[in-house]
């Protein structure tokens, strides 16, 4: 069996007190089976975003330990910050990376949500793919009115937590947990000053106006560079491969005789999202991602003993 | 500092006795910091080829343990097989995968070669990038006449080992050790029956007849498929990227109005060899391989504690 790996980006409502930030982050260091990628604390948002990849069990353990520290140090009744939030450990999104289907990741998030509530007493809402009520797939629906309003609204049936009683934790509020696909930020820069071209192409490729189902996009100017950009989030790179998005933009731009100057990938991307495009353009028949040395190594590491 | 990873494909002169094969392979199982990919024993060649990836130190330890077992069970005076060989542990090639330059890998191979000789008494020849005499970069020069002839020729100055006295180990012979780049097997299939086209294009792209410096290639027919193939080894994928080799073949084939039907990647390939082509075709500006989730995970695993 292949090693199971999950990405997790927990968001904590603390971006100012360095001793609290460090205590939380310490929960994720030097753990067998769970690797800390990085963390960013934003004082204006008063929020800490941690990036982790690990196997489900050690990942869950490290999150429970971090939750204890967050409960001890964060009081939502005193919390101020620019970013919307309803709890000390505000959001815990899980993304399957390897050896796990989305269905398995959803099941894991549900199990973890129950376990999390038992350990912490914090009520849980499930969102994205893990949502138990369709409208709760959207985070903004769950966080409506933020901590201050949810404190009283939680007694209404439509705002009741998915796990726990109809009351928030007195200081730690509530936590949103769920599984979601990896989001790829992909921008295509076009050789024109004409912003209307980027806007029109964004309209053509994005799902909201009838384009590719997994693409969100807008047209923006790149000030000072004499280019315009189709700025996109690909919310399911398996359905809408990068090469398909790019080639579609390329043939749309041809209508105005405009070429693609370059593209950008912002932030992290799973290997398979790029390998799919490499295999397409290189016309590789019968390509298997496990032919890639590093992917085979990660896959083997779980089955061949300690690493 | 980034985690150092080396690929190693040791060749043992035993492909028939399953208990010996299993005893050797056991040295590579369940080791922290070293992962067994696979192994293939060939009875006709009477040879065992093991595929490993690991950090230098645990990799070296597992090789020394396997060498002890090979010495105990393999007598080169009784060895018969179709594959050229000079020793019980015939060849140990190292390939840098991550966190290590070729120069560092050469230094590691030299250190390991000395250590190997001290532990086993087996004389060592350095080949490929680790060769101390230019002609010894080629394995066939070192193995000329095989075990049977080297046993007496070893006393000649030009055939003296690089480490150890001018005498082979009485039963285990000698071992060839060295660092080399990762070899990518890349085939391009063309939509024609005309073998002369594949042969002519192979001549154009390969180094031996003035083409790309890191490409070896021949033209072969694909019987029964109505295609011909330019069958290649890319010996340095950083110098001659896959996309460049493919596009060069594409524009050469255009001379005859012939198209590329598909390509094949045979066996393993390092992620960066495919990411380079993905970034080229997708026109990604400023792409960093550590934006790839799995590569960052492998990179972090060495620095963030146990895995």
Write structural notes for this entry:
Two copies of one chain form a homodimer. The first copy, chain A, is of the alpha+beta class and 307 residues long. Chain A has two domains: 5-179, Formiminotransferase-cyclodeaminase, Chain B, domain 1; 184-279, Alpha-Beta Plaits (2-Layer Sandwich). Chain A is built from nine helices and eleven strands. Chain A has helices at residues 18-26, 56-73, 102-120, 139-142, 146-153, 195-205, 242-253, 271-281, 293-301; strands at 5-8, 11-12, 34-42, 47-54, 89-98, 124-126, 175-179, 184-190, 215-222, 227-234, 260-266. In chain A, the strands form two sheets. In chain A, strands 1, 2, 3, 4, 5, 6 and 7 form a seven-stranded mixed beta sheet that branches. A four-stranded antiparallel beta sheet of chain A has the order 9-10-8-11. In chain A, a hairpin with a 4-residue loop joins β3 and β4 (47-54). In chain A, α1 (18-26) runs antiparallel to α2 (56-73), α2 runs parallel beside α3 and α6 (195-205) crosses α7. The longest helix of chain A has 19 residues, at 102-120. Chain A is globular, with a radius of gyration of 21 Å. The two termini of chain A are 16 Å apart. At the A-B interface, β3, α7, β11, α8 and α9 of A face β3, α7, β11, α8 and α9 of B.
Task: Put the structure in a nutshell.
Chain A has 307 residues and is α+β, with helices and mostly antiparallel strands.
